[in-house]
Amino acid sequence: MKQSVKMIVGNWKMNGLAADLAQAEAVKTALAEAPTANRVGLCFPATLIAQAAWRLKGGAVEVGGQDCHAAASGAFTGSVSAKMLKDAGASLVIVGHSERRAGFGETDADVAAKVEAALRAGLEPIVCVGETLEERDAGRAVEVVTGQVAGSLPEALRGQAFAVAYEPVWAIGTGRTPTVHQVAEMHAAIRRALVDRLGAATTPILYGGSVNPKNAAELLAVDEVGGALVGGASLKADDFLAIVRAA
Ligand code: PEP
């Protein structure tokens, strides 16, 4: 199914100081001058969320966090809860990014608990899934990704606003992207898993992994690609806006 309203979300990762919010403000200004029908969001480092929310207020850019703890508060030194993100002005949160699954040992069960925390806090979760190159080469990509969908998406999501982001690990930050055929095959498999599991026939399934102004139109035109999760190319307003306009 083609979705007419796409969701284009930037992930700044561990990049950005206060001065860099000028890029986010440039996105806000450009969208005020030439509005888009698409949803646009930027997920900032936790340190910037409150300031970003204040500076982007009244505009079309939704503010998000990049991770949250599963608990609302407590003795978890260095962590940030979903409730804190919401309080700082976020409306979105990425959970289960492969950099957290691989680098911080997050399991599907951890991700599902974070999704529940996000929902309790009133945040819209963007749940990331994706296979490694070894898994794809072994012919296990669809099995791995649909397994992550089953394990990372709790029943609490039924009827709620959320998104899934398919991000092949080997495409993140590498400049490599899957073929249009591989994207179509995976997004169709994710849709089937979403419908079977949660009756989620219209939940956006974003593609992420080396999306840039040159390849965005082709990727976003694929059936069941409901938007993009954009890392590196979201740091510069011009590049990010070109992707928003390509959708
Ligand atoms: C990401 O990490 O979510 C991502 C898609 O990164 P990049 O666009 O830089 O590959």
Could you walk me through the main structural features you see in this protein, from its secondary elements to its overall organization?
The chain has helices at residues 21-33, 49-56, 82-88, 98-103, 108-121, 133-137, 141-152, 180-198, 216-220, 237-246, and strands spanning 7-11, 39-43, 61-65, 92-95, 124-129, 163-166, 205-208, 227-230. Helix 1 (21-33) packs parallel to helix 2 (49-56), helix 1 packs parallel to helix 10 and helix 5 (108-121) crosses helix 7 (141-152). It has one domain (7-246): Alpha-Beta Barrel (TIM Barrel), CATH 3.20.20. It is globular, with a radius of gyration of 17 Å. It has an eight-stranded parallel barrel, surrounded by seven helices. The longest helix has 19 residues, at 180-198. Helix 9 (216-220) links the parallel strand 7 (205-208) and strand 8. It is an alpha/beta fold and 247 residues long. The mean pLDDT is 97. Helices cover 40% and strands 15% of the residues. Bound molecules: phosphoenolpyruvate. Phosphoenolpyruvate is lined by residues 11, 167, 172-173, 208-211, 229-233.
User: How far apart are the termini?
Assistant: 15 Å
Q: Which molecules are bound in this entry?
A: phosphoenolpyruvate
Q: How many β-strand runs? A: 8
Number of domains: 1
Summarize the helix and strand pattern as letters.
EHEHEHEHHEHHEHEHEH
Count, helices: 10
Q: In terms of per-residue confidence, which ranges show pLDDT below 50 for 5 or more consecutive residues?
A: none
**What class, by secondary structure content?**
alpha/beta
Taking strands numbered 1, 2, ... along the chain, how are they ordered across the largest sheet? Answer: 1-2-3-4-5-6-7-8
The CATH architecture comes to Alpha-Beta Barrel
Principal-axis shape:
globular
